[in-house]
Amino acid sequence: MTDQGRLGAPCRFWCSAQAKAMVAVSVVRRLPMLWLRVIACALVLLFWGLLLSNLLSPLNQPFSMLLQLLGAAMLVLNLLTVAFYHQLLKQQSHPWRQRLLVLLFGALRLPAEGRTADSLESA
């Protein structure tokens, strides 16, 4: 029996132009969020770079202390995020790399709840 005979109508739908158009529309809808996430990650990297440069060559007095306090607060919040999402991060294919990314970028790099390595391979 052919694939179309076994699968019936779903195969005809998913191979249709309408289904391809729906996939294209969903990709286009996600693009603004993707760019927003890229810009946010770039700003976080800029912040960590500014903090590192402040440690090597301190800025003027009120800004240096404020920047160090913001960096310490961000580090503590990201550590709490890693601790809170420990089980979700443990299910990833590379858990230590994922923990490091969450520690660096915070919640911007958290995987979706349903997107683990096992669920992606079975799809």
Descriptive key words:
123 residues; disordered C terminus; 79% helix; disordered N terminus; mainly alpha; flat
Describe the overall structure:
This protein is mainly α and 123 residues long. It has one domain. It has helices at residues 3-7, 9-14, 17-56, 61-84, 86-90, 95-105, 117-122. Helix 3 crosses helix 4 and helix 4 (61-84) runs antiparallel to helix 6. It is flat, with a radius of gyration of 22 Å. The model is unreliable at 1-5 and 117-123 (pLDDT under 50).
The major pleated sheet works out as: none
Helix-strand makeup class: mainly alpha
The amount of beta strand, in percent, is under 5%
The proportion of residues forming helix, as a percent range, comes to over 70%
* SSE string, helices as H and strands as E: HHHHHHH
End-to-end span in angstroms?
A: 23 Å
Morphology = flat
Low-confidence stretches: 1-5, 117-123
- Number of contiguous helices: 7
The number of distinct β-strands equals: 0
Number of domains: 1
The overall pLDDT, averaged over residues, is 76
| Radius of gyration, CA atoms, in whole angstroms | 22 Å
Question: What does the secondary structure layout of this molecule look like, with pairings?
Answer:
Layout: H1 3-7, H2 9-14, H3 17-56, H4 61-84, H5 86-90, H6 95-105, H7 117-122
Helix pairs in contact: 3-4, 4-6
